[in-house]
Amino acid sequence: MNNRIIKFRAWDNHNKVMKIYSLKELAGEDKFGYDTEFEAIQSGFDNWIWMQFTGLKDKNGKEICEGDIVEWKPVVLDRKMRGKVIWHMESGAWFVKDDIGDCNHLGLLLYISTEVIGNIYENPELLK
Question: Tell me, what's the pLDDT at 38?
Fold first, then answer.
């Protein structure tokens, strides 16, 4: 039996609020059963930006999702680094695109005390 938890987070761009759903909740939601694309658009569904839970947690036990902003301190630098969590299609893995444009494998960053400090929709200023 697979114990992997599949969750999604949705940023409601119209109401500016984050919503979290498990796969079971998504499958059971009546509001996802639109008959036409027009009905979905009328409901505001097209304003949602979907992000997936990576299956990983930060140093504080907080779940890490696509679009999260994480912070860590590399051993070789005198400063903390920040970046956003992305799905790297070519590698088929979760990565963090850091503030200097490099991509770092998310799994490796967890070994150096990575912490979720926000997300790109509620806290975009954290990447500036």
Answer: 58
Model's pTM, two decimal places?
Answer: 0.77
Largest Cα separation within the chain, whole Å, is: 55
Angle at 20 between CA 17 and CA 22, to 5 degrees: 160
Give the C-alpha distances (Å, rounded to integers) separating 52 from 19, 55, 97, 103: 12, 9, 16, 18
What's the rounded Cα separation, in Å, for the pair 18 and 104?
26
Query: pLDDT tens digit string along 62-114?
Result: 999 999 999 988 777 788 889 999 988 888 888 888 877 777 777 766 667 78
Q: Which residue did the predictor score with more confidence, 113 or 60?
A: 60
- Strand pairing category for 93-98 and 81-88: antiparallel
Q: Can you tell me the distance from the alpha carbon of 115 to that of 81, in angstroms, rounded to the nearest whole number?
A: 11
Q: Where do we find the tokens 């759903």?
A: 21
Q: List, edge to edge, every strand of the sheet that includes 68-72.
A: 103-105, 93-98, 81-88, 68-72, 115-119
Place of tokens 């963090």: 96
